Amino acid sequence: MIEITKKEKNSRSLTFKTKSGVINTPFFMPDATRGFVKSMGLDDLRGVGMGPMVVNTYHLYLQPGMELVKEAGGVHKLMNWDKPLLSDSGGYQVFSLIHKNPKMGKVTEDEVIFKSPLDGSMHRITPEKAIEIQFDLGVDMMVCLDDPCPNDYPKEKIAAAVERTIRWGRRCKDEYARQIAARNIPEENRPLIFGVIQGGEYLDLRKRCADGLAQIGFDGYGFGARHVDSDGNFLSEVLEYTASIIPENALRFALGIGTPSDIVKCHSFGWDMFDCVIPTREGRHGKLFVWKRDADIHSGSFYETVNMNNEKFRHDFSPVDADCECELCRNYSRGYLQHLFRMKEPLGMRLSAIHNLKFYMELMEKLRAS
RNA sequence: GGGUCGGUGGCAGAGCGGUCAAUUGCUCGCGACUGUAAAUCGCGCGUCUCCGGACUACGGGGGUUCGAAUCCCUCCCGGCCCA
């Protein structure tokens, strides 16, 4: 079902089908964590040519809650989004909550118990429950509950996280099979399921995790945990190595990556799919991505980031990017955008998110064409 | 004209004898943001600096004091009340 076209070096291009449509790789998904891309409406998303997006199990489970999602008829119906959706398991949220503050929860072999940061109520999540919720969401792609511990943990703790991630991967896969059977889901509507490869910056642990998960068998494999070191340096070697040990005919999902240049790098390593808050968040914060003239995405710096709040743009009545055809660049100037930000007008955030996502969409088009 | 309260850094507004170059908020300048507790967060914001400090500052002027944004006198300006 996954069609692969091999390209130069490690990079490649795949075509695969989900119940909500065909997807060509590489592709980037914005984070619609709580069922919406912050500040953007459906017309905005369609306007930039948006395809698949990411929603989050943990956030939707807490708000608005699964009762409402089910009542709406699933997350697609709730959002009125008919293109593919991938749900992240929520492992990242629960574990980072607990790793930052042990009082927020407890991890045992069987389950994770955590306190909702919203109202302090206690919740428990198991690998089985994470999968069941994702079936209730009705997404096209789902992710196993994993243990993404911080990279600076001692190796033995990361090794333990790897083993737990594998064991939980097994339980997720078993639950997945049960849900498929119980819900009578035909093969063509079957959601894809992803395991997540942990192991910090240790290549042997990444290998152990990838092999353990591959033995269980998944449609795709994700790269888990932070991909930058404590100084913010991108862990290229780990990303490149991990991509190389994932089964050839499986999807490679670089979770949480990244900046435009990180994505280009990872694509050259063989990663197929990406998601990140950067384009939308940085847009809302006033930082916009702008192509350099005659940009060659494989030649280092092909873009720059422009902080539209900088004083020097106050009197700049030219568009953010004269060659860009997004709603912002077609209609408004830099000086006007800065005015919107200074006035804290939500329109500024929306236009900037649109612009940055358009930039990312164009980047992915260029990668697919290259 | 009389009385009264007040004049503090871009703004608002603390401080009311030393620990004050002066709390705090906003504005302003810059930076960060990578499976979204993020319309958030951090740093800076008198001048100069060999980064230890030095200098000029709390309406103007004068005084008291070892020492004043803080007390006294006077002038200027503003609010309110009475004529």
List keywords for this structure.
370 residues, alpha/beta, TIM Barrel, globular, RNA-binding
Annotated CATH topology of the largest domain: TIM Barrel
As a whole number of angstroms, the C-alpha radius of gyration is 20 Å
Order of helices and strands: EEEEHEHHHEHEEEHEHEHEHEHEHEEHHH
| β-strand amount | 15-25%
The CATH class of the largest domain? Alpha Beta
Give the overall shape, derived from the CA principal axes. globular
Structural class: alpha/beta
Instruction: Give the terminus-to-terminus CA distance.
Output: 24 Å
Task: Write the CATH architecture name of the largest domain.
Answer: Alpha-Beta Barrel
Largest sheet: 8 strands, parallel
**CATH superfamily caption of the largest domain:** Queuine tRNA-ribosyltransferase-like
Question: Strand order of the main beta sheet, please?
Answer: 4-14-13-12-11-10-6-5
Structure description:
- The chain contains 14 helices and 16 strands.
- It has 370 residues and is an alpha/beta fold.
- The chain folds into two domains: 274 residues, Alpha-Beta Barrel (TIM Barrel); 86 residues, no CATH class.
- The strands form four sheets. Strands 4-14-13-12-11-10-6-5 form an eight-stranded parallel β-sheet.
- Strand 8 and strand 9 form a beta hairpin.
- The radius of gyration is 20 Å and the shape is globular.
- It binds one RNA strand of 83 nucleotides through helix 5, helix 11 and helix 14.
